[in-house]
Amino acid sequence: MKRFLSNSYVKSYLVLVISLFAIELIFKAISGASTIDWSILRIFLGINILSALLAFFISFVNDIARKIILAVIIFIAATYSCVQAGFYNFLGVYMSFQTSSQLGAVVDYVREFLLSFKWYYFLTFSVFLVALIYFIFFDRKKMEHIKTHIALITSLIIMTIGCLGYYGTVKSAYFQNSYQTISNDELFWTTSNPSIAVTEFGTVGYALLDARAMFFPVTIEKSYLQAENDNNDIVTDYSRIIDDSAWEKLIADETDEDLNALNNYFINRGISEKNEYTGLFEGKNLIVIMMESTNDIIINPDYYPNFYKLMSEGWYWENNYSPRNSCATMNNEFSGMTSLYSIYNTCTASKYKENTYYESIFNQFNRENYITFSAHDYTEAYYPRLDIHTNMGSQEYYGVEDLGITYSNEYRNWANDDEFMEVVLEIIDEKRSVNENFMTWLTTVSSHQPYGVSSIQGDMYLDMTEGTDYPMDVRRYMSKLKILDNALGVLLNGLEERGILDDTVIVLYGDHYPYGISTDHLNEVLDYDTSEDLNAERVPFVIYNSEIDHQVFSDYTTYINILPTLANLFNLDYDPRLYLGDDLLADDYQSLTVFADGSWKNELGFYDASKSEIRYYTSEEYTPEKIKAINEDIDTKMRISSDAIKENYFEYLGDALSEYEQQILNNSNNMCLNSEKDKYNIE
After folding, report:
1. Which of these, 520, 524, 511, lies nearest to 484 by C-alpha position?
2. Exposure winner among 117, 375, 534, 565, fewest CB in 10 A?
3. Is the distance from CB of 225 to CB of 640 less than 8 angstroms?
4. Of 81-95, 236-250, 363-377, 498-512, which range is least confident?
């Protein structure tokens, strides 16, 4: 037995299996995942396959080289697992080799990124330390080199048995959670949902599969669940009538199966009815403000009176969330403008910046003869907004240079939002001299991180929280929020001075919570636990107009529902089937918040997609069939949205419908002309 264990191949194999599997178990524990499910077997088999392969090559080097190589492999695995835990905590997504978009978010804020790590993330390195101790103090016996053919045969046997078992756990439904909508087989080939893939395959397995998917992508056959055509044939005063003649003709003529799959899905979705809120804001102006890194800390009448005025006199959704994802600011702006889900782990708006969306919020108001424009008080350094907004239909986009306000290229010092709003009011004056009706989308910047270091905005209003026990990073954040609140005051006063406050609707929502601040520190200010059930993602959402009565809504929602809600309130000529969000004020609105990885929550409970389990808040529970139905609906919408974006579907649809509608109109005119000729016997 001693001779067997002193064999170079066996030593290397056992050290790798034990060390890598221990790292996986530690990662499971620190990420809160279950260590008693079928994923453990799959991960263990995968580690065995990899260890057998690596041990074969390592067995031919000398003893010192063997120890160094093994130590490096273990260190890399421990580092990768630790960083993945920190990355998920910081940005809400796991790293992926298939996109470099997340890297910039960490490089620029590396200090905040490292400070956000919880101490137990570094437990993965305990395996590396134990391995070093073993190599230095216990692995001293003379090593026996194994014969090449024996090492090869042994590796092949281990790998064959491991691969057969691994294949079985991937392909068989028995080894998959019944609530999981993305099969392990699909995750194996695409790693399309890193949150679930990491849970099911482990960090080491995910890293290898993700790299393989980047260099050798596999296209999974599209199998959309057919949307049910639940359009009500009974016409009422609230019915929304849409003529589908052009679309039906397009479908009949279309030969591209992928495009027709999207056509058939969207045309068969239900057409939501009008309701008592339809047209309430018809003819008014619209200002949408996406507030940078703004969470519920801003709900404080003493510190932030202007926001509080808008919230307490307008409509406020107390269970609104802005789920983080890769490039959260731009992706969540994109979803607000289009009511589409961004592609998980992809900086969607930037990658597909050439796409056009005829159903976007800008184009909807363009068709109503509004003047539209958009603005952001920073540069194009992170996102190409000039291209994105222009292709969304914004008639003019203003970056910080166009606005002519002071800013710093140093990431810790931003432009001041109050100066931003002063220039925006000047732009509104200019636009209104041409057209009284305007719609604009504004994205603020002052409350952006970092919060852990001194900065102009972070120190500007520190005296405001003097004497409190709040952590310094929270105090700096609150100082930055004060600048945002001042900006809202500038806007309100400016609109009132111009006599257009009553005729203007203001919509505000946070793009994401202030990541870089730990949940422990946030909990010292907020009255709910931000570490539970993705509560950190909770941000304000307000619709304000001086002429409406204050209401508080308890429905769960996200930015995905903003556009269809506004389209109905302004009585725009829109097709609700093209939006994957819903009108929040509809009688049949289903209260639900959907997160980037397919997790969801509402009044009843929280479903964690990475663990495929639900935790209830009430005694009322869903049936297993209902949970599966919700999951399938979410998964289908996310797949549809992803494919539609990749295919630039809405540009295709908008152009095609315009062409077919013109053909139908021409045919109709020709028929009328022929009818007139027949009437008067004209040849």
Report:
1. 511
2. 117
3. no
4. 81-95
pLDDT at 223: 64
Mean pLDDT over residues 481-504, rounded? 98
Tell me how far apart the alpha carbons of residues 69 and 441 are, in angstroms, rounded to a whole number: 54
User: CB-based contacts of 324: which residues, under 8 Å, 6+ apart?
Assistant: 91, 92, 93, 512, 513, 515, 537, 596
Structural domains in the chain, CATH included, are 2-215 (no CATH), 224-252+648-683 (no CATH), 278-589 (3.40.720.10)
What span, in angstroms and rounded, lies between the C-alpha atoms of 69 and 58?
8
* 382: its two tokens: 């992170």
Q: Residue 590 and residue 582: Cα distance in Å, rounded?
A: 9
Largest CA distance in the chain: 111
Tokens of 95: 């790293």
CA 363 – CA 72 distance, rounded (Å): 55
DSSP 3-state assignment of 182? coil
Query: To 10 degrees, the CA torsion angle through 296, 302, 306, 307?
Result: 10
CA atoms within 13 A on the CB side of 363: 17
Element containing residue 543 per DSSP (H, E): strand 541-544
Q: Report how far residue 430's alpha carbon sits from residue 496's, in angstroms, rounded to the nearest whole number.
A: 17
Rounded Cα–Cα distance for residues 328 and 91 (Å): 8
397 - beta bridge partners?
A: 374
Give the 3-state secondary structure of residue 506: strand
CA-based nearest residue to 80, from 236, 212, 207: 207
Residue with tokens 């983080």: 324
pLDDT band, very low/low/confident/very high, at 96 (cuts 50, 70, 90): confident
Task: Report how far residue 465's alpha carbon sits from residue 406's, in angstroms, rounded to the nearest whole number.
Answer: 26
Q: Note whether 501 and 284 are within 8 A (CB).
A: no
Q: 64: closest CA among 120, 112, 8?
A: 8
For 266, other C-beta atoms within 10 Å of its C-beta total 20
Look at residues 432, 352, 444, 436 and name the one whose alpha carbon lies nearest to residue 392: 352
pLDDT at 475 over 80: yes
Q: Which residues pair with 508 in a beta bridge?
A: 289, 542
Q: Find the mean pLDDT for residues 175-184.
A: 87
Nearest to 513 by CA among 671, 360, 296, 340: 296
Pair 352, 101: CB distance under 8 Å? no
- Which residue's structure tokens are 């994105």? 388
247 alpha carbon, distance to own chain's centre: 30
SS3 150: helix
The pLDDT assigned to 65 comes to 92
- The size of the chain, in residues, is 683
Q: What do you get for the CA distance between the two ends of the chain, in Å?
A: 106
Residue 145 — very low, low, confident or very high, per pLDDT cuts 50/70/90? low
Q: Let me know: does 19 contact 146? Beta carbons within 8 Å.
A: no
CB contact burial 642-668 (16+ within 10 A = b; e otherwise): bbbbebebbebbbebbeebbeeeeeee
Distance set, CA 10 to CA 61, 146, 147, 281 (Å): 14, 9, 12, 74
